[in-house]
Design brief:
18% helix; globular; alpha+beta; 2 helices; 109 residues
Length: 109
């Protein structure tokens, strides 16, 4: 479970952020997350996983791929929905959750 102050930080970025557990993982659902990519801002639903998953220390899953950004996109079934993520490793779980999110989003700029 995420500490209240950590969830509060994520709510400053995405007001409706909330936890959603599944299969031993706790995901933070970020509906309508604003993603700055290239010369535009897009809005996508996102799931932030702050635990090691699939060989990555943390992961960010998006409701769809970001065209022209990220490498080696894969699709995963989480919370009975298709989610997409790219190969972006090295974002450690020792960071605050808002920092983890920022590091994942950096790959899409």
């Amino acid at each position: 479970m995420l500490a209240e102050d950590s969830l509060a930080e994520l709510k400053l970025i995405c007001g409706d952020a909330h936890e959603m557990p599944e299969g031993g993982y706790v995901f933070v659902f970020l509906p309508g997350l604003k993603i700055y990519t290239g010369n535009q801002t897009i809005s996508l639903d996102a799931l932030l996983c702050l635990q090691a998953k699939d060989g990555y220390p943390t992961r960010l899953f998006l409701s769809q791929q970001v065209p022209g950004r990220g490498n080696n996109w894969t699709q995963h079934r989480i919370l009975d929905k298709a989610w997409h993520t790219w190969s972006w490793n090295g974002v450690g779980s020792d960071l605050r959750p808002a920092q983890v999110l920022a590091e994942h989003l950096r790959a899409l700029r």
